[in-house]
């Protein structure tokens, strides 16, 4: 049996794992082809999870073991961007028609960018937290972006930053801005970002949410981590909103357990005195985090002083017919003006799923419409897992449960199809050429698993030289060279291109 998996993030690997471990599929799986548009695997674990959370990133060890163990079955094709040129019909034919292949699993995450505020001045004043995260994680498409600096390229100390959003990504951004440079230096953080963050020297952070604190979507653990990060942090909570009267008979929805726990953390640490490590009052000037609730940015201006001025309107909060808290700006209220350094105002209000190949999009849930993982409205065996399946929320562990459900659905569909046709969808009757042969014939540079292991070894080696977990390779071209067996020295000599240079070689668009 042959299946295809598109995307080598958590959902892709957990799908592979669930397929390989499913009792009914053992001894039947002949080939699992995994396509990844980047030359390297692991999706947001490599390029989203914050560098100061190395314990989270260690989940990749189990996927590496999986690939080692099943290398005869699972093939990794990195630097292969599956897109419009490789139509869904072609993919379905190869992997999901029940004859040549038994199933196609789409695990591409949320590729539609990030949600925008849609306010005047958003460009150029407000940066995307998604891009900032990719930058400090050394993503090859973002490694040469500039953040935290004024127009002249200088990063001034005593930085003031704004983060718009009340989720865990917003907390990651806040923590990275405040994290001790020495702590970041030993991680896999992009060294350019470590230097810029140190030079920025965040002194004041404003975290803005449009609703009240009990409706924030962050979790207690991440909030506690931020609020206990350093002894010189001081927190001020501003509640800018007013509440509309609750209509008689309407039952307001209660905050979830997660929301209640996060609220307890906020209450516990906010307003606490600034205490140093030995318990006396700190002598240093405290770094301050302002939590603003019930406030919506309505306009952003770049002043002559090279600072961003964010004009915010207080909100009126009200319960909708389902008892959920909603908000609207109060037209006649005095606006709140918050200023920050240029390049340090971030929106972090969510990621967006895009529907490739005209797959059915559920725009309310921000995911592909599916039944337990099977894409609705298609004849063929096409499945989704991860953020593409349930929307861009939740943690890595959710993608495991999710992939297991998708694979269970796949097996159930397979059973049913085989009963109906009295034939096994094993793909063994096919004489289709191997994917690598097709890619090679077409002259596409792809990275196989051994190629990734070479990149990985080089990154770890470079990390050891400077006492860090790893130093990531920052360009696709360097990755391809290393994957192909060249040393970095060979590469620099042959191409005249140093690791600091960032040339982008676009991934192969596969059409076969
Ligand atoms: C900033 C941030 C921090 C996070 N921190 C944590 C944390 O600390 N702990 C935690 O548990 N969870 C964390 N998460 C959540 C976690 O990262 C996600 O739950 C998980 O990565 C979702 O997995 P996925 O495979 O669906 O998507 P992704 O991780 O996005 O993987 C999708 C993969 O598909 C590839 N791809 C996309 N399109 C194509 C294409 N056309 N062809 C080929 N390949 C393609 C992408 O390059 C990518 O590698 C964080 C998320 C973010 C955004």
The CATH superfamily of the largest domain is identified as FAD/NAD(P)-binding domain
Structural class: alpha/beta
| Main sheet properties | 6 strands, parallel
What's the number of extended β-strand segments? 22
Percent of residues in β-strands: 15-25%
Low-confidence stretches: 273-283, 490-505
CATH topology of the largest domain: FAD/NAD(P)-binding domain
Approximately how much helix is present in the residues? 25-40%
> Major sheet: order of its strands?
6-16-7-8-11-9
Please state the average pLDDT score: 88
Distance between the termini: 20 Å
Tally the structural domains. Answer: 2
Reported CATH architecture of the largest domain: 3-Layer(bba) Sandwich
Radius of gyration: 25 Å
Enzyme class: oxidoreductase
Catalytic activity: 2 reduced [adrenodoxin] + NADP(+) + H(+) = 2 oxidized [adrenodoxin] + NADPH
Protein name: NADPH:adrenodoxin oxidoreductase, mitochondrial
GO molecular function: oxidoreductase activity
